[in-house]
Amino acid sequence: MTAAMHLLAAFAAVCVGASAAPTKPNAITGTTSAMLYFTKFGYMEPELFNPQSGALLSQDKLRESIMEFQAFAGLDQTGELDNSTLEMMNTPRCGVKDKVGFGTRARRKRYALQGSRWRVKTLTYRITKYPNGLLQNDVDREIAIAFKVWEDVTDLTFERSTSGKVHIEVRFEKGEHGDGDPFDGPGGTLAHAYFPIYGGDAHFDDTEAWTINSYRGTNLFQVAAHEFGHSLGLSHSDVRSSLMAPFYRGYESSFSLDEDDIKGIQALYGKKQARPFPATQAPTLSGGGGSSGSGSSDEKLCRDSSIDVAVTMANKKTYMFKGTQYWELTDDGVASGYPRSISDDWGGLPSFLDAAFTWTNGNTYFFKGDNYWRFSDMTRDTGYPKKIAKGFAGIPDSIDAAFVWSGNGKIYFFKDSQYWRFDPSLRPPVKENYPKPISNWEGLPNNIDDALQYSNGYTYFFKDGQYWRFNDRGFRVDAADPEFPRPVGYWWFGCPASGSQMSSVHTNKAHVPLPSEGDTQDDTFDAGGLTRSG
Predict the structure, then answer these.
(1) What own/partner pairs with CB < 8 Å and gap ≥ 24 does 413-416 have?
(2) From the candidates 142, 169, 173, 227, which is the catalytic residue?
(3) What is the residue extent of each domain of the chain?
(4) In this model, does residue 363 exceed pLDDT 50?
């Protein structure tokens, strides 16, 4: 039987019949148990709910969580714990969160990528603990077919190993089993798996009645194919027919991967094609959102991932500068041919820069000491450098960072424990109530190295080889898994994970028309040329 025929919509958002009935002792029946569910699966931030007292800090947040769950599950968004909602919440399901992080309610794509992927194309796995109710040979076969589901649509190859280190460990456990995420007995959570950044292992609840090609019990193949999607870097999907939807709906004898699943896995690993690929590297993680592409790590950056400047140019290329060198970043790491010398490619630009930002007309501004330089692409404009005091009145010398914030289109400058907002449409461009404390930006440290507004709409702050992702809508450091700060080398440069980086990873990877200042003698920002259109 082919993998396609073996596969079904194992985790579609609609369940069948009695599988959803709340018969378990820990069934979701009311507000308190619902809040625990929403917290566990990412619909509510833990600090909004006190599980000991059952107190909810905001009724509005409860309604919002219910509606987000209903939307994800394909239910009518009533905002109430109605029968259909409770029925879905009591449906057996995967134990991985549906929502990873807060503050971004809509995905850019229907499929969901967690952000990490394997850099190898040949992945090994081993079943280290078998279930009690099935023969080992049968389990071996079903697990192999589940992996083949993903192998059939990508260039990945999966090999079973009986000894030595492997990429993905598969095991069947009961209750608490050493990872801090205990199973809850028959029904409820069926299994969970870890994304590549966490090692990719998959655990199955051994108290479930695992079956093969049967409408009784819980189908092993279906659940395993879903969990291995997580092991490869896919999050849950809200597409009803997707394998990566989180809810189990019962055995079906034939199915094929949904287009949503195929697009998701191919965004990580590309389409199936024959080409060599190294088989001994660590996972790579994309700092800005993640997709397939070419890239490599750089040994120097991996040893010390602190940076001087990060900037995205008008051509959408992102560069990072450090000392006398610079690097171009791809979605997977460092572009080939880097590092390169700043002096060779950026004529007139000094080394050891302080900050940089790009304005909407395509000009990029670099800062060092009391001077700044204006570049069009990689060419220095005539008449630069100029004094910060003349072109950016009210901004101090030797700044730490500069960026255009998506929240209001204004330029922000950071230095030590303070920040300034620069509005070219005002005279003076810096209001008298500045500077203000960086502590206003919830979760950010003082004395940052640089900041970058990335193409995904987030603002990233860098310090000492770590970075923070700032949620511009929520105005705070984003809540995510893994938490921030994260190691720059591992998430942005595609570096192998060192021990110190993994400890950090496992704590649970500008635009307004510019100065018509042009080449004016006094070089002050002209309000008429800088105001934001629209």
Answers:
(1) 413/355, 414/438, 414/448, 414/451, 416/446, 416/447
(2) 227
(3) 3-9+109-269, 28-89, 295-530
(4) yes
CATH 1.20.1740.10 is right for the domain spanning 295-530? no
Entry pTM: 0.55
Structure tokens at 348: 């007139």
402 marked ligand binding residue: yes
pLDDT at position 208: 95
In tens, the pLDDT along 163-201 reads 888 999 999 999 999 888 899 899 889 999 999 888 899
Q: To 5 degrees, how large is the angle CA 260–CA 266–CA 269?
A: 150
pLDDT of residue 499: 47
CB atoms within 10 A of CB 313: 18
The reply, when asked if residue 397 is annotated as ligand binding, is no
449 is in an annotated binding site: yes
3-state secondary structure 520-533: CCCCCCCHHHHCCC
Calculate what percentage of the chain has a pLDDT beyond 70.
Answer: 77
What is the three-class DSSP state of 148?
Answer: helix
Query: What pLDDT digit, counting tens, does each position of 106-143 carry?
Result: 333 445 566 688 988 899 999 999 999 899 999 999 99
- Predicted confidence at residue 315, as pLDDT, reads 83
Encode 190-203: b = buried (16+ Cβ within 10 Å), e = exposed. Answer: bbbbbbbbbebbbb
**Rounded to whole angstroms, how far apart are CA atoms 37 and 43?**
8
Cα-trace Rg, the chain = 26
The domain defined by 28-89 folds into Muramoyl-pentapeptide Carboxypeptidase; domain 1 (1.10.101)
- What pLDDT, in 10s, does the model give residues 239-296? 988 999 999 988 877 767 999 999 999 988 988 875 444 433 444 444 433 333 344 5
- Distances 368 to 279, 356, 360, 396 between C-alpha atoms, Å: 43, 9, 22, 11
- Closest to 73 in 3D by CA, of 16, 15, 116: 15
Q: Is 356 annotated as a binding residue?
A: yes
Across 354-480, the runs of DSSP E, i.e. the strands, are 355-358, 363-368, 371-376, 379-380, 386-387, 401-404, 411-415, 418-422, 436-437, 450-453, 459-463, 466-471, 476-477
Q: Side chain identity at 396, as an amino acid letter?
A: P
Per CATH, the homologous superfamily of domain 3-9+109-269 is: Collagenase (Catalytic Domain) (3.40.390.10)
511 in a known ligand binding site = no
176 noted as active-site residue: no
- What residue type is 206 in one-letter code? D
β-partners of residue 362 are: none
Average pLDDT, the chain: 80
Residue 230 annotated in ligand binding: yes
Residue 209's CB: how many other CB atoms inside 10 A?
Answer: 13
Give, in order, the Cα–Cα distances in Å from 201 to each of 34, 135, 139, 414. 28, 21, 16, 42
